[in-house]
Write a structure and sequence with these properties.
Elements (H helix, E strand, L loop, with lengths): L4 E4 L3 H9 L3 E3 L1 E3 L2 E3 L23 H7 L10 E4 L4 H10 L16 H7 L4 H12 L12 H12 L5 H12 L3 H29 E4 L2 E7 L4 H4 L18 E5 L4 E4 L3 H8 L4 H12 L8 E2 L3 E3 L8 H14 L2
Parallel strand pairs: 1-5, 2-5, 7-8
Antiparallel strand pairs: 3-4, 6-7, 8-9, 9-11, 10-11
Helix pairs in contact: 2-3, 2-5, 3-7, 6-7, 6-8, 11-12
């Protein structure tokens, strides 16, 4: 059995080259084009032959429930980014995680057998929910939400080390609750710190541009804070002070966000922000797979293209073109 190896691909073509070499692609989505193998480990865009994956469950759920250990004998993976969904899926595909779906558990005995047979299906569900529909949710109150917060605190920002992020899931999941308890308190503090940074970003770096909140030089992923919840149904635009936010990060990435798909489609019509991505790709001369892309409610600029504030202005122009 080969040791874990994770490659990064910046473009759909690069990801496909890795697949041709036998790597398993996990969430390799580029401007609405998804690169997959037979496991179909993506839920963002369309495959090269036109199959729409956007209605599939998250890769965390499907890898853990349906494909556990499928890549145990060949642990080569290719990804486009590091997040909880893709790293949890890789850990499940490689057979690293405790699971009732682990057929090898029958060869274990005693405490080891008990630990490695634990069921974390609910954790996969929490990861999926926060990845695809986080509006109005309190992470800490969700099943295994504190463990997810610990993973974010310990592994998600560790120098972009994907292998360590994958191993981190196993480390947390085999640990006893009493050992993790002191760290849960730290995770709560870290969550409070991130919220405070998001609030500071809005005050110090935020301004309205043609009715859109822009965060210029964002330091955290703070969209939940930046949308500014008001009263009313959270799945309507009226419930949010800033139902559309554009954030420019120092690394040159731009993210465009709305609180949820329902709000995006209320503002932009059917398919929400996907209209915006398509128009931006037309303006920039980019093709699907190398350009702007993402979900109906949130997405952003090409992964391998450094953007500037001039690009923010172009994005706002397109947003306002489609806004009802």
């Amino acid at each position: 059995m080969k040791s874990l190896e994770i490659a990064f691909a910046k473009t759909a073509a690069e990801a496909q080259n890795y697949v041709n070499l036998g790597y398993c692609p996990v969430e390799c989505s580029y401007g609405g084009v998804s690169i997959v193998d037979g496991l179909l480990m993506d839920h963002h865009g369309k495959t090269l032959d036109g199959k729409d994956l956007s209605k599939l469950e998250s890769v965390a759920i499907r890898a853990y429930r349906d494909c556990y250990g499928a890549r145990r004998k060949d642990q080569r993976f290719v990804i486009s980014h590091i997040d909880a969904d893709c790293t949890f899926a890789i850990a499940a595909l490689a057979g690293y995680l405790p699971s009732p779906f682990n057929k090898n558990s029958k060869f274990l005995k005693g405490k080891v057998a008990e630990v490695m047979s634990r069921d974390f299906t609910a954790l996969a569900g929490t990861i999926a929910l926060l990845d695809t529909d986080p509006v109005g949710l309190d992470r800490m109150a969700l099943p295994f939400g504190k463990m997810l917060s610990l993973w974010h605190a310990f592994y998600s920002g560790f120098g972009g080390n994907a292998e360590l992020a994958v191993y981190g899931w196993r480390k947390l999941m085999v640990s006893e609750e009493e050992m993790l308890a002191p760290f849960y308190a730290a995770a709560v503090q870290e969550q409070e710190r991130l919220i405070a940074k998001a609030e500071a970003d809005m005050v110090e770096r935020g301004h309205k541009e043609s009715g859109i909140l822009v965060i210029r030089g964002a330091s955290v992923f703070g969209f939940d804070t930046w949308y500014q919840k008001k009263d009313g149904n959270v799945r309507t635009a009226a419930a949010w002070e800033n139902p559309v936010v554009v954030a420019l990060y120092d690394e040159g990435n731009i993210l465009i966000g709305t609180p949820c798909a329902e709000v995006a489609e209320e503002i932009f019509g059917e398919n929400g922000l996907k209209k915006v991505y398509a128009k931006l790709n037309e303006l920039y001369g980019l093709e699907e797979g190398t350009g702007f892309g993402g979900h109906v409610g949130i997405g952003g600029s090409p992964r391998n293209k450094k953007m500037t504030y001039d690009d923010v202005k172009s994005i706002i122009m397109v947003i306002n073109y489609f806004r009802k």
